[in-house]
Design a protein that fits this description.
The complex is a heterodimer. Chain A is built from no helices and 11 strands. Chain A is mainly beta. In chain A, strands 2, 4, 5, 6, 9, 10 and 11 form a 7-stranded mixed β-sheet that branches. Chain A is globular. Chain B has no helices and 11 strands. In chain B, 36% of the residues are buried. Chain B is mainly β. Classes of the chains: A mainly beta, B mainly beta. Chain A binds chain B through residues 31, 33, 35, 41-45, 48, 50, 55-56, 58, 89, 91, 98-108, and chain B through 32, 34, 36, 42-46, 49, 88, 90, 92, 94-103.
C-alpha cells in the first residue's frame, strides 16, 4: 500500500529556532497539504499546494510559514521562528485528485517547542 | 466562518451494537464529505467518502448524507473493540481545502 512518509517523527526545538518538516507524498499524487493538530484539539488546515505553488492557505499560515517542493519528491514545511504555540502534530497529506477521493495522511511529526 | 460540528462524546456502545455518529456542516456549497478514524497518537485514516444524498455502504460502515439538512452520519454495525477511536467528519469548503470537525470519541465495550 503506497504511503506518505514524514520525517522526523518527533522534533524538539527551542523557541525562535527554524524547523523544517519533511514529507514524501505518494508518487503519483499531485495535490499536497499540511495540517496540524494541537494536542486535544481538531485537525486544522494550514496550506494546500499544487503545481509548485500554494493554492490555498489558512489564517494560521502566516509569514513565518513556508512550503516548498524542492526536488519533485519531497514536500517541506518550514517554520522560521518557532513559538511555544506551534507545538503540535503536523500532518502531511496528498491526493491524486483534488479534494475528491480523500486524503492519505502521513504518520505525522510531533513538534515540541521549548 | 465555515464550521463542522460533531458531538465530542465519548460515545459508548457494547460490542456487537450499532454506533451512530453525527456531523453537521455550515457551508451549503460543500460537495465532498469524508469520515476519518483516528487512533490516539496516530494520523487520521480515511474510512468513507460520500458525495450525493442518500446512503453509501462499505462493509460494516454506512455513511448517510442529507445536503438539505447539512447533515452527515456514519453508522458502524457489529461494533468491535478495535473500532474504539475518534471519528472525524471532514467536508470540502473549496477545491483546495477540507476542514475537519472536532471528532467524536467512540468506545466499544467488550
Amino acid at each position: 500500500e503506497p504511503e506518505v512518509t514524514q520525517t522526523p517523527s518527533h522534533q524538539v526545538t527551542q523557541m525562535g529556532q527554524e524547523v523544517i518538516l519533511r514529507c514524501v507524498p505518494i508518487s503519483n499524487h499531485l495535490y499536497f497539504y499540511w495540517y496540524r493538530q494541537i494536542l486535544g484539539q481538531k485537525v486544522e488546515f494550514l496550506v494546500s499546494f499544487y503545481n509548485n505553488e500554494i493554492s490555498e492557505k489558512s489564517e494560521i499560515f502566516d509569514d513565518q510559514f513556508s512550503v516548498e517542493r524542492p526536488d519533485g519528491s519531497n514536500f517541506t514545511l518550514k517554520i522560521r521562528s518557532t513559538k511555544l504555540e506551534d507545538s503540535a502534530m503536523y500532518f502531511c497529506a496528498s491526493e491524486a485528485m483534488r479534494a475528491n477521493y480523500g486524503y492519505t495522511f502521513g504518520s505525522g511529526t510531533r513538534l515540541t517547542v521549548v | 466562518q465555515k464550521e463542522v460540528e460533531q458531538n465530542s462524546g465519548p460515545l459508548s456502545v457494547p460490542e456487537g451494537a450499532i454506533a451512530s455518529l453525527n456531523c453537521t456542516y455550515s457551508d451549503r456549497g460543500s460537495q465532498s464529505f469524508f469520515w476519518y478514524r483516528q487512533y490516539s497518537g496516530k494520523s487520521p485514516e480515511l474510512i468513507m467518502s460520500i458525495y450525493s444524498n442518500g446512503d453509501k455502504e462499505d462493509g460494516r460502515f454506512t455513511a448517510q448524507l442529507n445536503k438539505a439538512s447539512q447533515y452527515v452520519s456514519l453508522l458502524i454495525r457489529d461494533s468491535q473493540p478495535s473500532d474504539s477511536a475518534t471519528y472525524l467528519c471532514a467536508v470540502t469548503t473549496s477545491y483546495d481545502k477540507v476542514i475537519f470537525g472536532p471528532g467524536t470519541s467512540l468506545s466499544v465495550i467488550p
